[in-house]
Amino acid sequence: FLHFLKFIYVSWTTLNNFKTGSTEVNTLRMLLHGPVGAGKSSFFNSMDNVLQDRITTRALADSLSGKSFTMEVKKAGSYFPFTFTDIRGMEQEEGNGVHPKDIPKILLGHVKNGYIVKNPISEGNPKYNENPSLNDRIHCLVAVIPANSISLMEQIVIDQLRKVRQKARDLGIPQVIIMTKVDEVCPLVKGNLEKVYASKKIKEKVSLLGVPVNCIFPVKNYHDEDPGNTKMDILILKALLNIVNFASDYVLDQTDNE
Ligand SMILES: Nc1nc2c(ncn2[C@@H]2O[C@H](COP(=O)(O)OP(=O)(O)O)[C@@H](O)[C@H]2O)c(=O)[nH]1
Ligand SMILES: [Mg+2]
């Protein structure tokens, strides 16, 4: 049990002292995407909860407005130097939600906070940023996919996810997959979250995704638990630490190149 606490302490300290290490970028920006109900808002709330030890329903409330919005995690007197932007979940029908052709504009930082994503993204909009800098760009793409519906996911959702991932790959932006709801696919894992890496059912779901295992982070989000569940916190912190590291490497790499 002590090694759990040590992991939490070290991760928490690392995140608390984290700085981007680039003079051009003060905040690492992550984009959350994935089907409606995948657990994007819950994942943000879970991170917020782990970092602050309190449940917040901010993300859930904001997500109902249909706007793209950026969430920051408060820290004593300021904010952590990373944000998560939630684009409205991709709908089953093309035409609702974000159009795939607009994804590169979002990734390249043309879309400011508060942009109403159901409108086509156009240059006339006051929330359109003509000349985004490295600081405005998305530095890590985070796909949120629920473990319990991977095999049932509509082809159109799978295609949309693939298109977004392809755009990010073309732009060289790092990507991770957060696999939520691991408790819903395996009773063993539901009983003991530590079993997540040993579970055959989870391995099966991971292999269905067809991406390298080191980019997939299984989590169980906080939804009706009390805060401070060590095993849940560890998976959430592991995911967050990796996201921050991927984003940070990307920014340093881009800073060298410019
Ligand atoms: N069992 C379980 N339920 C989850 C998990 N993550 C999210 N949920 C539930 O799934 C539903 C959709 O989550 P939400 O965060 O609103 O999804 P979003 O549309 O992607 O923002 C909510 O009822 C959550 O409580 C999880 O890890 N395990
Ligand atoms: Mg949401």
TrEMBL record:
Q: Which InterPro entries match?
A: P-loop_NTPase
Q: Which residues cross the membrane?
A: none
Per the record, the domain of life is Eukaryota
* Cross-referenced Gene3D superfamilies: P-loop containing nucleotide triphosphate hydrolases
Provide a GO biological process annotation. Answer: immune response
This chain belongs to the protein called: Interferon-induced protein 44-like
What species is given as this protein's source? Sinocyclocheilus rhinocerous
Q: Which gene encodes it?
A: ifi44b
